[in-house]
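Researcher: Re-running this chain for the archive, since the previous output was lost when a drive failed. Same request as before.
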Amino acid sequence: MNATEPDLSARWKRFAEAHWGREPAAVPFAPGLGPEQVFRVVAAACAPPAEDAAGVRFATAAQGRLRDASALLPGRDDPDPDAYRDRLARQLSGPGWLLSVQQSLWRDFGLWAHVRELVSGLWRAVGWPTLPVTAELALGERCPGRDAPAPRPGSFALTWVLAGTMTVRLWPEHTGTEYQLAAGTGDLLYWPAGCRHLDHYLDRCTTLRIVVPARRAAALTHVRGLLADRMQENPAYAGAPGVLPFPAPAGPDGEIGAAGPVADAGRLFAGLAAGPGTARELRVSWATHRSAAGLEPAPPPRPAVPLEPGLRVRASAELLRVPDGPGHAVWAANGHTLAVEGAAPERVRNRLRPGVTLTIRELGRSSRMPAETLIPLLSDLHRIRAIELVDGDGAA
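Model: Regenerated structure tokens:
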């Protein structure tokens, strides 16, 4: 993806100028992905016991979503998408089927990084999403995505057809207009927020869909979840839920108060929301989203490897910096963050430029950072794939 980045940026700029925030559209926009890459990730997501946790959905045109589709999910005997589809053609007598998996890109760093670079071109043109986006991979054959329009008007969607064809019916909010779009291999389907949609998968269709929250209510959900996690970690939140006797006791003015633990929870919630800790967590959360281009969860860090002064390293990802108080900062890369302190790490960061190769010894001299603190820092950066060893560890 990097080799064609200028061309990709120009394509996204033309797309944004012509279609962004306007009407639904189907345009040629090959993403540089094949159905085989997607199938490997889908198969990994379907392997037990991950089916429920990975957001796997299997439906047939005749029966709708199947609660137990284990025998119909990809398995060891399905080496590629064509073999899998051929098996289902023998097993299913109905008119069609659809397999979709949400948020599974993290299983393959190469695929995740490719999709991140793909959508980053658009974000650079229109602005970066402030919340995680939903990535959905789907394989379908002669099957509607749902039996009714999907109720997600608060998001906009980008759908790449990687193989086969698909059609989409769209109903924008506040209008009586219905759109019908068709797309084939290498096409991109786009619709802005405020559209209900109904998909139909045809001709051995494989798709990648990115759904991006576009309403303030999504931010509320994110903040509420963060505060709920912090409340449950707070000792003041422990205890049994409050109950009121009947008839409820009243004050001299006749007013009935909330049960004690409920009122305490409200005060704790308000205090945490207004505290500096929440502002910091939201700031770090933004750095995480930005470095992942919204694609969360991110692939886990890779295993640590021994680093020695003679090894050569170079930057392999953008290292985003967010100030975090006097002398402190948070670095983010590939959906992971790292807290740093002092001027020496900043000198290291300034010397880790794309295309520049340095030995760890050279990096220590130029940054005036001793090996005992430099090597742990570089080890952390290597684990989150912000740097790579020039002599070869790839992006594993």
